[in-house]
Design brief:
The chain contains nine helices and 23 strands. It is α+β, with helices and mostly antiparallel strands. The protein has a domain of about 280 residues. The longest helix has 21 residues.
């Protein structure tokens, strides 16, 4: 082989960031073990960053990818309202807007159902503000749109570890560090450069639960995402978008603490790994070519970066969207109205939290025995993106990346809402937390992988 090729997107690109830190005093309790209810301060700001992409000959953005530091939406109507606000204000279509939640567990409990809790009166105003701030970020990013190259590559980070731990003494599964369990360490990175070669943004797509800060933490925080982003922004002088991957069974080894220094240390691990991978990327629109032998103490093989031809770049400007619906059969569980009396009668805080989650989950799903889950697939020139509004195990991203090994794949979980986990079929019936929480029957993860595979095949093969 005398040539090494790389992957690019050539498009109009814009980016903008907004501070979306919730107000101190807002209701933040989302851990059953927590003894406090409200945020007492801020560790690091929570950020929303919008990256817009459009074909070079398009007048309006086709795709908006928003990375936001929020955990999840227990009340699905809250997430739908935010997305509706953004689409109404920006003119984006449903297939072209992705809001990827970093999934931090140290921010607001974003649930308008909880207005009666301490600090709960601040939740609805915050959610309204969040929709407006994301809209403002999209509109500001649109004003910065200009031709750019996106260059993709892979790195590795050992931050994520398996968290399905079998406690053999108690004969049950604990959701925590499993030293013997496999973990996906894949880190996809991308660098956005303008026509002048300057860096305009960076992306790092990684699967790991931001659960460093847990029940003893009293501060609003993006968890490890904040420090990781800081490393990249300092290194490259441009906004950095963290994109949460398929992290159902993955979390940091050292987590469930109240010490923000641990979150920062975890974040630097990921940030430095991402920075190293970005530094290794080639100049935009180039290939690495063997140029021959230079006689020295031995015959030295020399290589050099050379511009790609227009034919070689023919697909780099293709941007397309595809939105699928995957029918996922649900477990047979009591309806939402049947959970309500149990929730109202519960006095134990942990039990209240568990019942509320189940109540709102069933409320969001309704009475249909099948959940019609949306799945987003984007073509980004030589790369592609798959986004799912749930928390699949990393098998989702590993299977897709193995099948499409020649194409860089951004894999996004917790995007445009989230209802539950998608564990592998063989994990059912073992008492693992993710399977117990999931509203889906066995086989739904595998069904989602099959649908994404088919959708990607059709999109990447289309001419």
């Amino acid at each position: 082989m005398k040539t090494e090729t790389y992957h690019y997107t050539h498009c109009n690109f814009g980016v903008a960031t907004r501070d979306v830190t919730p107000p101190v005093g807002i209701y933040t309790r989302s851990w059953g073990a927590a003894k406090h209810d409200t945020a007492e301060g801020v560790h690091r700001p929570c950020i929303a960053t919008a990256a817009l992409m459009a074909p070079l000959d398009a007048a309006q953005p086709l795709l908006a990818l928003v990375a936001v530091d929020i955990g999840w939406f227990q009340n699905l109507e809250d997430e739908k309202a935010i997305r509706a606000t953004v689409m109404q204000r920006t003119g984006l279509k449903p297939e072209g807007l992705l809001i990827n939640m970093s999934h931090t567990h140290a921010s607001v409990n974003a649930n308008s159902f909880l207005v009666d809790r301490p600090g709960g009166e601040l939740i609805k105003p915050y959610l309204l503000s969040l929709g407006e701030q994301i809209s403002e970020a999209v509109l500001a990013a649109r004003a910065t749109m200009a031709p750019a190259w996106i260059t993709y590559g892979y790195g590795r980070s050992a931050l994520a570890t398996n968290r399905d731990y079998r406690d053999t003494e108690r004969q049950l599964y604990a959701c925590g560090y499993n030293p013997g369990g496999p973990a996906d360490d894949t880190l996809l990175v991308a660098r956005v450069t303008g026509e002048d070669g300057g860096t305009r943004a960076t992306f790092f797509n990684y699967a790991c639960h931001p659960t460093t800060l847990a029940w003893d933490n009293h501060l609003l925080s993006p968890d490890f995402v904040g420090a990781a982003r800081e490393v990249l922004q300092h290194a490259f002088g441009a906004p950095a978008l963290f994109l949460q991957g398929a992290s159902g069974e993955l979390a940091p080894r050292h987590d469930y603490v109240g010490d923000t220094a641990v979150a920062d240390r975890n974040g630097r691990q990921l940030g430095y790994a991402a920075a190293a991978a970005i530094e290794a990327l080639p100049p935009a629109a180039t290939k690495f070519v063997y140029t021959g032998i230079m006689p020295s103490g031995t015959n030295l093989g020399t290589w050099a970066y050379q511009p790609l031809t227009s034919e070689e770049l023919a697909d780099s400007g293709r941007l397309e969207t595809h939105m699928l619906v995957v029918d996922l059969p649900r477990k047979e569980l009591p309806a939402a109205e049947d959970f309500l009396p149990q929730y109202q009668a519960a006095t134990d805080r942990r039990q209240q939290e568990l019942l509320l989650r189940r109540l709102l989950l069933q409320q969001a799903l309704g009475h249909d025995p099948v959940h019609h889950m949306s799945l987003w697939i984007w073509r980004l020139g030589d790369a592609a993106l798959v986004a799912i509004p749930n928390e699949p195990y990393s098998l989702f991203q590993r299977a897709l990346r193995q099948h499409f090994a020649a194409t860089p794949l951004l894999i996004l979980g917790t995007t445009n809402g989230t209802l539950g986990y998608l564990p592998p079929q063989e994990s059912y019936g073992q008492g693992i937390y993710q399977e117990q929480q999931s509203p889906y029957q066995p086989g739904c993860l595998e069904k989602s992988i099959a649908a994404a595979t088919q959708g990607l095949t059709e999109l990447l093969s289309a001419r």
